[in-house]
Amino acid sequence: MDKPKYIYFLGIGGIGMSALARYFHNAAYIVHGYDKTPSPLTNTLEKEGIEISFVDAVSEISKEFLENKDNTLVVYTPAISKDNKILNYFRDNRYSIKKRAEVLGIVTAQTENLSVAGTHGKTTTSCIVATILQYSEKQFSAFLGGISTNLRSNYFYHDGDSEHLSIAEADEFDRSFLHLKPNYAVVTSTDADHLDIYGKKEELERSYRDFCNLLAEEDNLFSAYGNSIMLGGTTYSSTDKNADYHAIIKNQSGKGTHFSISNNLGKESINDLYLNIPGMHNLENAIGATLMTLKAGVSLDAVRNGLANFKGIKRRFEYVLENENIIYIDDYAHHPSELRAIISSVRELYPNKNITAVFQPHLFSRTQDFMDDFAAELSKLDDLLLVPIYPAREQPIAGVTSESILKKITLSSAVCLKKEVVLDELKKRNIEVLLTLGAGDIDRLVLPIKEQYGN
To answer: Which residues pair with 313 in a beta bridge?
Structure first.
C-alpha cells in the first residue's frame, strides 16, 4: 500500500488491530490510535512509538491527521461503538475508512497466504505455523491473534530468500475471513459460535464453506476431521484413525508429545516429531500446521525444529506457576468446546489432583446460546469460582448472568463472586491445580495470583 501515509486505528488495543498497527508502523507509516482503556498491549505499542489516546474526543486527533485527510486511512474494528465521536468525525468528514478485515485482506493479498480458520484452535495453530517458518529460509509476515512466546509479539516479519509468505488468522466473526485471499488454509473447528451475528449454526457453516471456496486448489485445504460440516480437502485428527492423516503417539507428558503422522492415502508417514507443549487439542493443531506448511514447500527439518522449539502463546495453556505447592495454568477458553479441551487435558495430565477454576463468561449472547453446555463442562471441575460476564461490545440480556449458569452446575462448591474478591476466596480453598479461564479481562488476575502463590 503506497498510499496513505497516515493510518489511524480505532480499537488499536485489540489483538488483531495491534498486529496490523505494528505492520504499518514497522513499514514507516505514521500510526496513531484510540482505545477505550490502557492495557499491557497498548503500553507495549506506546513503547514502540505509536501514539494512543484513551479519550473519545475529536480534540484528541493529532493535527497531522486533521490536515492530511487525503493521505489518511482510518481502520476500525466492529467492537467500536457506533456512537464513538472520533469515528463519527472521520465519517462526517469523508475520510477513507475500512474495517480491519478489509485492510488485512489487502495486505496479505500481496503475498502467498497461509490462513488458519476455526471457532477455536486458530491462534495456537497459526502461531505454530509462524514458529515453523521461523526455522525455515522463507520470507514471511505473521498476523496473529495472540502473543507468541517464540516471536514475542502478535506481528512478526522475517526476511528470507523466497517469495513473501503471510500467515493470517481467518476470523469468522462478522464474516471477516471472506476478505482474505488464501493460497493454503487450515480449518481447526466449525462449532457454533457468534450466533449474535449468524443467527443460526447453519449460517455459520455456510460462511465456512464460502471461506474454503476462496482457495483455488482444494488440495491446499486441511480440515480437522471432527468438524461438524464436510468442507472437502484433506482431513486430519490427533485421535481418529479414519481421518486422512492421524497421530501415532509414542509417548507424552505434561511437557509435550513424541509422535508420528500416519495416513490413509498410501503416502509415507511423517516420523520423529516432538511437540513442545502438552494437550491432545494442541497436538491436533500441530498436525494441521505441519500438513499446511509442508504443502507450502517448507522443509521437514523446519517443521521438526518449529514443533520441538514451540513455547506456546500467552493465555493458551500457559503455565504461569509450577512448583511443589501449586500448578497454575491460564487459558483463553471462552466457548464450551474450548472448556472441554482444556479441562480434559488438565485432568489427563493430573488425574489425582484437585482442579479449581476461575471462569469469566464472555458475551451475554454466547452465555445465553450455550448456557447448558457451559454448565455441563464446568461441572467436570472439582471446584469453581464464577465471576460476572464480560460484556465486550454487548448490552446486558435480562436473565443472562453468571448466577444463571451456577444454577445449572452440579458442583456443590461452585460460587459466584466479584473479580475483586477472587484472591481472598482462593486463600480459603485447597488449591492443587488452578485454572483461570476466559477471553475478557480475567487476565488482569494472572499477575496477582502468581504473586500470591509464587512464594
So the answer is: 148, 316
CA distance 315 to 390: 17
3-class DSSP assignment, residue 302: helix
Dist. CA 289–CA 360, nearest whole Å: 29
Residues 6+ apart with CB under 8 A from 384: 356, 357, 358, 359, 378, 409, 411, 413, 414, 415
115 pLDDT above the threshold of 90:
yes
Tell me 166's DSSP state.
E
Q: Which three three-digit cell numbers place residue 66?
A: 486533521
- The set of cell numbers assigned to 328 is 497454575
Distance CA 330, CA 333 (A): 9
Three cell numbers written together for 8: 489511524
Q: Give 200's contacts (C-beta < 8 A, 6+ positions apart).
A: none
pLDDT score for 192: 54
pLDDT category of residue 200 using cuts at 50, 70 and 90: confident
Which domains are assigned to the chain? Answer: 6-99 (3.40.50.720), 109-308 (3.40.1190.10), 318-453 (3.90.190.20)
CA 188 to chain centre: 12
Residue 380, all three cell numbers: 467436570
Report whether pLDDT(188) > 90.
yes
- pLDDT at residue 229 in the model: 67
| Residue 43 clears pLDDT 50, i.e. is over it | yes
**Mean predicted confidence (pLDDT) in 186-191:** 87
Task: Spell out the alpha helix ranges (H) of 326-370.
Answer: 336-349, 364-369
Say how far apart CA 245 and CA 247 lie, in whole Å. Answer: 7
User: What is the pTM for the complete model shown?
Assistant: 0.79
The alpha-helical segments, DSSP class H, found in 229-335 are 280-295, 300-308
Helix/strand number for the chain, H first, E second: 16, 21
Quick: pLDDT tens for 312-345.
887 888 889 998 889 999 998 988 988 998 999 8
The long-range contacts involving 446-452, CB below 8 angstroms and separated by at least 24 positions, are: 446/320, 446/330, 448/423, 449/320, 449/328, 449/422, 449/423, 450/320, 450/321, 450/328, 452/423, 452/426, 452/427
Query: Helix, strand or coil for residue 151?
Result: coil
Residue pLDDT, tens place only, 276-317:
988 888 999 999 999 999 999 999 999 999 999 999 887 888
E strand segments, 174-244: 184-187, 221-224, 234-237
